[in-house]
Amino acid sequence: GKIAGALLLRPWLKLLKMQLQRASLAHNDYLFGLSTTGGMDEETVLRTLAALPPGNSEIYFHPGTRSGVEIAATMQGYQHQRELEALLSPRVAAALIEQSVARIGFRDLG
Q1: pLDDT digits (tens, 9 = 90+) for 63-76
Q2: For residue 61, which of 89, 92, 28, 39 has the smallest C-alpha distance?
Q3: Model pTM score
Q4: How far is Cα 54 from Cα 30, in angstroms, rounded to an integer?
Q5: Could you tell me which of 25, 103, 38, 24 has the C-alpha nearest to residue 75?
Q6: Can you spell out the DSSP letters for 65-103?
Q7: Given 3-state DSSP classes, what are the helix, strand and coil percentages for the chain, each rounded to the nearest 5?
C-alpha cells in the first residue's frame, strides 16, 4: 500500500537530496501530498499546513477544472476539481496567513 511505497521511496529520496546538495542545487526540504496524490482536498491541505516543519516545503497537487479521457488512464481516481477548490479555499488562505506560511516558487529558494 501507500506505507510500503513510502518506505521504498525513502532511500531514493535521501540519495537524490544528497546529490542535489553536492551539486549546490536549490531544493525543497520536504514534500507533502505524494501519498495523497489526487486527493488533496481542503481538509487534507489544512491538516498538512498545521503540521509543516520549519524549512521549505512543497505540497504536491494536480489541480484542474475537469478531467477527461486524455489523462484518465494515468490518473485514475484523481480529484482535480477538489484539489483546485482546496487551493482556492478561503480557509486555506486564512491558514497560510495565520501560520505565517510564505508562498514561494523554486526560484525563491536561492
Answers
A1: 888 777 777 777 87
A2: 39
A3: 0.81
A4: 9
A5: 38
A6: S---HHHHTTSTT--HHHHHHHHH-HHHHHHHHHTTPPP
A7: 55, 5, 40
